Amino acid sequence: MSPTESEFLAACRRRQTGVPVWFMRQAGRSLPEYHQVRAGIGMLESCARPDLVTEITLQPVRRYGVDAAIYYSDIMVPLKAIGIDLEIVSGTGPVIAEPIRSRADLDRLRPLEPADVSYVSEAVTQLVRELGRTPLIGFAGAPFTLASYLIEGGPSKDYAKTKALMVSEPALWDVLCTRLADLSAMFLRVQIEAGASAIQLFDSWAGSLSAADYERSVLPHSARVFTQLAEFDVPRIHFGVGTGELLRLFGEAGADVVGVDWRVPLAEASRRIGPDYAVQGNLDPALLSAPWPVLADRVRAVITSGAAAPGHIFNLGHGVPPTADPAVLGRIVDLVHAEGPALRAT
Ligand code: CP3
Q1: What sequence ranges are listed for the domain Uroporphyrinogen decarboxylase (URO-D) (predicted)?
Q2: Other C-beta atoms within 10 Å of 158: how many?
Q3: Is the complex ipTM higher than 0.90?
Q4: Which atom of ligand 1 is least distant from the CA of 145?
Q5: What confidence tier does 346 reach under pLDDT thresholds 50, 70, 90?
Q6: Would you say residue 185 lies in a domain?
Q7: Catalytic site includes residue 38
Q8: Is 2 a domain residue?
């Protein structure tokens, strides 16, 4: 690690000394200061206001001293920006007015222009200035996860319509996912050009697929997102839930760091992914409500298992639940910082 490189970026590049920590969905719903500034303002409206985006992104950095900030936005923001009629319903998730199911529907998916999201460049520029040494992670949704919302019309348990379209109309599926890959790549490009120092591609729901279907119908599109960003020297994190059978493919798609949920221990995950990748994760978010001594031991176990990987960024296995006690997250950050270097070294 060079003296100017943050512990987070050093871990992404597999040359850390300590253990960096941040939390997926650290900004937002679990923080009282978030509810205060968001009062009376819609989710998507808040994403288009650089002053609010900056404040909300900084809140968990101030409160916890995490090693990275994640840009406050949503995977649906670029779709909204090209004119897709959608809402984010609190407690439910994204809801699409007219789902996309036919070739004619694809006409509504035009390319994203940087000017459509000028507020993103503005917010990222301001944030990077205020964050100082703390890196900012930019993010976007991967084609499969975005497609699942567009095709289902909202959240789904089984992704039945999405999978049916994927296997029965492969040509339509490929056009749809190519457009979504280009949309996400442009959204990430805007964030990187404004100063984001790492990116995370969220394919939250890809774990619902078999490895064969993932490799055939999804991986090429996620790889297209990363390929389009090849000119940038920023670490790429690739995350999904329930991806135990897909971990190697998640690395191969073009990531530097593979996000792992709580179902596979990090040492085993790293063995599946291979030695050229760092891992990120993977405390079970449900355990945040366990008594502190029990939870603390689970935090230590995650670090110890992660020490088998050539790089490890501590995180939860999925997002911070809305009911999480911020004080508990603060204690985890302190514990990872205090004990991480020694636990990783043993
Ligand atoms: O710190 C952060 O990570 C905040 C930035 C962030 C949000 N969404 C803000 C948000 C990030 C990284 C996301 C990503 C996102 N959005 C994903 C991938 C991550 C994951 O959890 O797997 C997905 C699948 C979405 C789509 C989405 N948006 C869902 C499923 C929800 C939850 C609905 C709910 O209320 O339970 C949202 C809404 C959302 N995105 C909120 C926030 C702060 C809450 C809505 C609100 O505050 O009104």
Answers
A1: 20-29, 137-153
A2: 9
A3: yes
A4: 24
A5: confident
A6: yes
A7: yes
A8: no
